[in-house]
Every structure is written in structure tokens, then in C-alpha cells.
Amino acid sequence: MTIRVALTHETTYRYDRSVSLSPHVIRLRPAPHCKTSVVSYSLKVEPERQFLNWQQDPFGNFQARVVFPEKTRLLNVLVDLVVDTKVINPFDFFTEPYADNFPFEYENIIKLELSSYLIPSESGPLLKSYMSFLKKEGYGSRKRIVDFIVELNRKVSEDIGYIIRMEPGVQTCEQSLEKRTGSCRDSSFLLVQILRHFGLAARFVSGYLIQLKADRIPLEGPKGPENDFTDLHAWAEVFLPGAGWVGMDPTSGLLTGEGHIPLAATPEPISAAPIFGFADPAETEFEFRMEVKRIAESPRVTLPYAEARWNDIKRRGKSLDRKMLDLGIKISIGGEPTFISDEDRQGTEWNHEALGERKFELSKDLMYRLRGEFASGSLLQFSQGKWYPGEPLPRWSIGCFWRKDGENLWENSALLADAPNASSKNEISDPRKTSEILAGAICRTLGIDLSYMVPMYEDDLYYIWKEGNLPFEMERELSSVYDSLERSRILRILDKGFKKEAAFAIPVYYNYIIDEWESSSWNPRRDRLFLVPGDSPAGLRIPFASISDRFREFPHFTSLEKKPSLPSRKRIEEKVRKRLDLPPKSFDEKGPPIQSTLVVEERKGMLHVFLPPVPSLEVWLDLIVCVEQAALASGVAIRLEGYEPPTDERIEVFKITPDPGVIEVNLHPSTSFEELELKTRILYEKSIESKLSTEKFQIDGRASGTGGGNHITVGALTPDESPFLKRPDLLRSLVTYWQHHPSLSYLFSGLFIGTTSQSPRMDEGREATLYEFEIACRQVDRLENVPPWLVDRLFRNLLVDVTGNTHRSEISIDKLYSPAGTSGRLGLVEFRAFEMPPHYRMSVVQQMFVLSLLCRFWENPYRRPPIRRGTELHDKYLLPFYVWQDFKEVLEDLKTCGYPFYEEDFIPFFEFRFPEYGRTQKDGIGIELRMALEPWDVLGEEANSFGTSRAVDSALERIQVKVDGWTQGRYALSCNGFEVPLRSTGKIGEAVAGVRFKAWSPTFTLHPNLPVNNPLVFDLWDSWSERSIGGCRYYVSHPGGRSYDTFPVNSFEAESRRISRFADHGHTAGETGAPQNLSHPHSPYTLDLRWAPGPGWKKNVP
Length: 1102
Hints:
Blueprint: E1 3-19, E2 24-26, E3 37-46, E4 51-56, E5 62-67, E6 72-84, E7 101-102, H1 108-113, H2 115-118, H3 125-136, E8 143-144, H4 145-159, E9 161-162, H5 173-179, E10 181-182, H6 184-197, E11 202-211, E12 229-240, E13 244-249, E14 254-255, E15 260-266, E16 275-276, E17 284-297, H7 307-327, E18 332-336, E19 338-341, H8 357-374, E20 379-384, E21 396-403, H9 431-446, E22 454-457, H10 460-468, H11 481-496, E23 503-507, E24 509-511, E25 516-518, E26 529-530, H12 569-581, E27 597-603, E28 606-611, H13 617-634, E29 638-642, E30 651-659, E31 662-670, H14 673-689, E32 692-693, E33 711-715, H15 723-726, H16 729-740, H17 743-746, H18 769-782, H19 788-796, E34 811-812, E35 829-831, H20 840-859, H21 872-876, H22 880-896, H23 903-913, E36 916-922, E37 925-931, E38 938-944, E39 947-952, E40 956-964, E41 971-975, E42 978-979, E43 983-984, E44 991-998, E45 1016-1022, E46 1027-1034, H24 1051-1060, E47 1062-1063, E48 1086-1088
Parallel strand pairs: 9-10, 20-29, 22-26, 28-29, 44-48
Antiparallel strand pairs: 1-6, 1-17, 2-5, 2-16, 3-6, 4-5, 7-8, 11-12, 11-15, 12-13, 13-14, 18-31, 18-33, 19-31, 19-32, 20-21, 21-30, 22-23, 23-27, 24-25, 27-28, 30-31, 33-35, 34-35, 36-37, 37-40, 38-39, 40-44, 41-42, 41-45, 43-44, 45-46, 46-47
Helix pairs in contact: 3-5, 7-20, 8-14, 9-13, 12-13, 14-20
């Protein structure tokens, strides 16, 4: 985002007597080739009686020549400069083909023009020696010119240490190389001479350097200044054919950017001196003052709120807590924030694949960091997650569980194999023996005889058969991912061996009658128990069909009643200790065998304990203590996996799971603003420490969030306290209000919106549903008693997508009171359309906003009928202006109801979702281009190697154009020759419209024959002169033809890519006819350029 700064530079000379001053030359005005936008400039010179003339030197630099007709005791030069520091990509240039690689020869005409920049002015012995050293290091060998200048710049920066040197003049190259230190002007002069000795044209540049304090301190690399800073500076520029002059700063070792303001660029330093002149001999006092101040900065994702505003938001958050307490409403709020890698934005696991090795390692790192903050005395469990069609393996899930009563669930962290302090416990010399020892120890803590422990083996016959089908050349990559997985699986099993036990199983069942664990014998058909072939843990590959066709029944408990307190850790340990003091038990074998099984298995040098399903939390706590005591007795660290504990409000849990392209953190719920602010801040801070990011950008620089969203889940800590089950009208109010205000859907959304998105609005593509929704609302309003099951059934089949999926809905009630079972009867409502906010403070404001809306509906139910907008929903409310106007109505409604929010609280969201592309001023009329939203259609089915798929048509884009100072009647605004349907905003002279266009031609798309609309040329057409009097251009891709292969590495590069695609000039030249009308009743707010006539069209056909 643009930051406007004011730079003040004052230089003062005080003389002890009146002196005559020679004409002075002042070079303190930004040079013509300055890339940073200069808003205003002022030069004031004292004494005031003087004659000042602006001129340009032979090299094109601005300089003021000042003549002083009278003697004076004071010379004061004051410069005030205001600039907009937009991000500049120093690598955004092309070179001529012959100059792509170094060394090269300039063309004759260019060499003649650059002659004064090519001749070295120094050739001392130390410089010659240094040149020889550089050539031996490979700097003179053939390489890309960009690599050459970057490496040379860095080398000079490393070899010449930076010092502040107040003496006048510039050191010679010999002095700098001998001392190995120098000021910025010394190292820059040295670099200029080195470049010339290499045959490259180079010049010396003096200027201002503006460095602003970073919003976020990087984990690695230079941290930057602690405060905003400016100073006179010097650097070098090298001339590259095709690119022009490229700035190189040997002080930092970087290329120059938006903070470098050139004042004078000359062949020699003496011609670039900021102030040059003479005075009569006298005692002189010299002073200078430099300061830089931010005078305007729009909210940005790295600093969305100033401290004063953030403190005010926190004050209102605490007030909201008191309000909820007064209302007696018990609300908990949680979420599912998502993150991507900060170091590998190109990787498939961070773009579309759900699984990846690096993703798993980063998730573990983040989990242990969060565990230390949220959950002391907790345990980690690595379980099997969801398995979606088309994915070769199930996803994993890392869960962190702890008791709410403060008792330790797991005491010794060193016994967790993945813990940072578990390395000494994780060295296994004999995996089979260690597994058997651990399994035996678990049997003893459970009070079970060792005879019930069952060794399990890999199926040798199956793998021998599979081995025979493998090719001889094992190194050759197989075409199918499934074949590749099968091959690696077989090789792993063959390496492990068939005759050794693969794992040990312990059938366990908790008998509530005798209040102890039981086990049973297994009698498989074969002499041994052979695992089902596969990659999953052994606990999921037990061949139960070969053991028995009937197993002991498993008790199930379902109740909404408040549960008693959990037994203390000490009490459970005493119970386990008593078992250890008694002899192991044998059990009656008359009944059916036990199916629930605990399994001990070694994989990848780590012991895994697979936990069986258990009916109650009390039983699970007993089992956990048994496993921990066994691990302690065996002296090994373990990884817990298998079935998670039963859902119970007496324990807390948060999870980290993989999703396509992201890591998803299922954060545990908060019951107050202070709690959610603390948790959200810690989560974002620890994710940064784990080298995870919340920012992701498209190839053209547009921000897209992580792509995984930030689902917000609202309910209560227990289902019986859920406000949606206690007050069914709350859900009815919420859904109706969301339908009335499209801004709630689109201001916080991701880029993939619309009917076929993962979180469509109820009225997107299914307007008929609104009629059924009214009937459901009527029942909620009229019935005196609406039981929980009815609340769910009334809305379950309405809050779905076009395929009927109850999960893929903007407001999902999957976990409200599902008929499927207790895991879906949690009284929760999930908001699934929210994109991942890039800053934790934005996330906090978003959650606070949702809580305020729920409180507003609790006090004043919203019982209005739905609005049927038809095509206006996407034609109008995908434009930023109308989204913001609608959202201001929401803010005003909340303020009226006693929940004050202000527009400034949500400007960061607006700028994130609808960034400005550029603006220009022509003949008193301002034109602003801003990103708008565009729903992408899902096309028909296509056959591929994996079966059948449906492509998303991403060919279309939409932008908003807004004008101010508009005079209706005289002017018209056109885009590519077609009139833009501007509509008044209600403010005099201001109007707005949308432009929809085809940005590119993917393989699968609607209307493949239509041409791409690039660039978009906006003309301000004057009906009086019948020609364009100015305009601007928007490019879909880089206007210079630069084709990016990788995503932007950070927000700075992303911003530079966006800026490069807008030009504040480039109107249609010559006399033109009036813009043509392309209006269509389907989209009165938007110009759709796809209606424009294309090549090969028949003439005179409407």
C-alpha cells in the first residue's frame, strides 16, 4: 500500500562575520529519472535577498543556481519534499538480447553516447589487484547480466565495511581498498570504477534514502531500521541496453527501490555534490537537520489499525463481553484459520494437494509451539483424518487434548516421540523387541495377562505375488501415482521382512459391571494373524473377518445432561498401581471375542501406540494413564494414534489438519472477547515462528488469501447451552439478515464465489428456495415450542448448495443437531464464506463483528421476508462501491442497536478484497480503477486419466471504474470504444460502473472463440470536441511482455506487479466517434465486453 511521507532537509552555515558568497549550485531536487512519485517539492534559501534560477546540467539533473548580491552571516537551505512510496520492483526490466549475458559489447552508437561513463578515472595497483581477484572468482566469466550485477554489488558490500565519515570529498579507490571501510559515497565511487573496468557504463548518484520501520520484523535477514529514517546517500547506476540505468547500492548490497530518491547522477562525484559554492574566509558553524514523517498511510494487511484505533476496538470488545453477560447469552466462538508455507509458495502441497511431507513437519512444529501456549499437561494424538475420493491416501490429523479442570492429562512430555526433548528416548536398536516390551508393559498396567497379546505379521504370500509383478528396473518411475505408492509400499515391507512381527495387538474392552479392563483370545483361520495389505497403521489393517463374524457389543452413551466432574489424575494412577500389584487376569472365553484393539507398532524408527475406540471419557483417561506408565517403565518415547476420545465438554481440543493447499487449525472455542483476542494473536505469532504465512497471491499480484478460508463456528461450550437451540428464531434472524445484506457475503469472501463455490448464498442459483425458507420461518415464528431436532430439520435442506450438500453452504448447520449421531449434535453454526484475514487483528474484529450481530438478534429478532434480487445480486453487489454502501447500512443498524462499529474498522477488509489498481486525473475528472469480484462457473464433465472432472472457468474478470468531478451530458466514459454505464452514487459529480471482460483463454472455457480483452483502454470522451481528452489503461498482464513463472514471494512484489499493470496515460488517439452502446437488461450496472463484435462476425446482424 502507498505511504505518503514528508522529508525535511535543512542545512545551515553560520559565519562569525558578514561574508560574500559566490554563486551557489544546489542539487537537492529529485532528478527526472526518479521512479518514486513526487507529490510536492519546495526549496527555500536564506538570505532571502537572492536570485534563483532553475536549470538542468549536461546530464539532465535539476539544479538551482543562486546568486547572493549582499553579504550575509547566514546561509540556510531548506528542502521540503512529499513523496508516495509505492513499492518498486528493481528487477522489473528487460535487456536487449545481446546484453542478456555478461560480458557484452555496447553497440557503437550507444558506446559513443555513454563515453563519459565508460572511461575509468582510477587504475591504481590495489584496484588492479582487486579486479584480478574478482575475475579469478568468476566475476568476469559468462553469466546472466542480472546475476552479474547482483553478485558484484553484494561482493563490494561485503568487502568494504560501512562507516559514517564526516570529512568532505570521496576516498580514492586505493584508500577504500586499503582501509576496507568507507562511507556510502566511497563504496559507490569504487563500484562505479569497477563496473567501468569491466566495460560497463556506470555513473555516480547522490540522493535521499528513505527507510521506514517495517510493520513486521522478519525472522531472517536484515531487520531494517528501528524507526523511520532518512539521510543523504550515494549509490551507483549501471547502464544495461534495453533496461536503461539500473541502481546498485553497495552499502546494503541491494538494488535500489522506492526509498532511493536520486538528486544528481553524474560521471564523477564532484558534479553530484548537493551544495557547491564558496564564501569569504571566516569561522563557520555547520548544522544540518533531516527528518521524515508519515503524513498519510492507508490501512494495509501488515498494519491494519493504528494503536489508538486498536485500543478503542479492544475497549468495545470488553464492553461486548459485559453486554453478553447482561443478556444472559452464553456464546462460544471458534474457527478454522488456514496457513501456507512462507518459503515454498510454488509447491503443489501449498496450492492444490492436501498431503505433503513438508506440510506434516510444519504442522508438528506449529502444534508443539501452540501446545506450550495453550495446553500444559496435554497429549498429542496423530489420527487418520478424512479420505476424499481421488486421493490415494487418507489425510492425517494432529490433535492436542487436555482437561478443562486443570489436571494433567499427560505428565511427561519427553515420552512423546515428536516432542523437542524426546530425542534421547527415541533411539530404538531392536524395534521388534522394544515393541513387544512396550506391549507387555501396557498389558500389565491394564491388568491383562500377556497371553492375550497377539503378534501380527505382514501377509508374505500377497507381497511375494506382488513382488513377482514388479519390473526389474526398480528405479524407473511408474506412470501412475497408485503404482508408485504400491511399489514403495512393497519395497518397505520387503526391507522389513516377513518373519518378524510387524505389530502387537491387545484386544481390550472396559467392563462397567466389574469396573475393569477385559480381553479375549483370537483364533484366526491361519496359524498367524496376517495384516490386510496397505499403508495405514496396523490398527486399521486388522483382518477382523478372519477372526470372527460376531464381536462383543460396544456400549454407546448419548445425553445432553450435565456430566459429573472427572476423576483426578492421582485417583486414576492409584487405580493403575493397584492393578500392577495384582497378578494379571484371565477371562471367560464363552462370549464373542472383543473387537476394540490397542496396537503397538514400530514405523520409521518410532514406536506407535494405536488407541482403540472407548465408550466414555473416564475410560479413555484410564487408558491414557496406563499407556504413559507403560512407556515410562519401558524407557521409550511413543507416538499416540488411532481413535480419538469420545466427544465430551470436559476436555478441550484443538487440531491441525491438511486441506488442499493449506494447513487448517481447528482452534478451541472462546467465550469472551479477551480470550479470543489472546488466542488469535498467539496463533498468528506462532505460525510466523513456524515459517507459515497467511498471505497468498495470484501470479498477477492480486491477493487471494490462503485459499482455505477462515471458517467461524459459533455455539456454546455444551449443546444444551447453544443459543441456536435455546432460541430457534436466532438462526432464522441470522440467515434472513445475511440474505438481506450481500456485503456480509462478499466483503469477507475469497475469490471463488457464486453458485458453484464451496459456500454459496442461499439465493445464488436457487431463488425458489426463498419461498420454502419463508414457510420454515413462519413455523419458527408461530410455534410455541420448537425442539432442537425440529430447528435442524426446518433449515437443514434449505442451507445447502445446488447439489444438496449440507456442508457446502455459506451458513452451515451440519453440527447443529444432526440426525446422523451425537458428533453432529453440538449446537454449532458455521460461517464458511470468510476468507483468511492476513493479520490477527483483522481476524479478531471479524469475530467480534459476528458476536455483535448475534447479540443484536438475541435482543431484537429480525423477522422480515427475504428479498428477491434476481440478476441484480451479481450485477450490482459484486462491485466494491455497492458492497460498501450496503455494509454501511449494517454498521448503522448495529450502532442503533447499541453495538458501535465504525467504517474505519473495516477499511482494511475493503482494501484487501477490493484493492485499487490505479487512479488518474484528466481535465478535472478523476478516474479510479478498483478490483471487483467475479463468480466463476463450473463447466460440464470432462473425461481424464483419473475418471471424470469438471473445470472451473476462470477466464472472466471484473473491475470497477469510479469517476468524480463528472459532468453528465458533455462527457462519456468508454472502455475499448464502448460506453461504460455510469450510475450516480448520490454524490454530486460521482458515478460508478463495472466492466466485465475476458482476461485469458484457458483450455476449458465458455465461448472459446471470443478474443481476450487486453488491454482495457478507458477514454474520457468529450462530445464538444468529439475526441478523447485523456484516459488510462489497465493490462491483464505485464504491459512490457514480462511473463512471470512464479508467484510473488511477498506483499511487496505482489504490489509491484499490480502497479505495473496500470498506466495513467494511453488514451485513444485522434478524433473518434461517440462510444457505442453495449447495454444489456441482464446487467444494467456492468459493461460486459463479451457482447462486443468480434473478428469474423456477420455484418448487419443484431
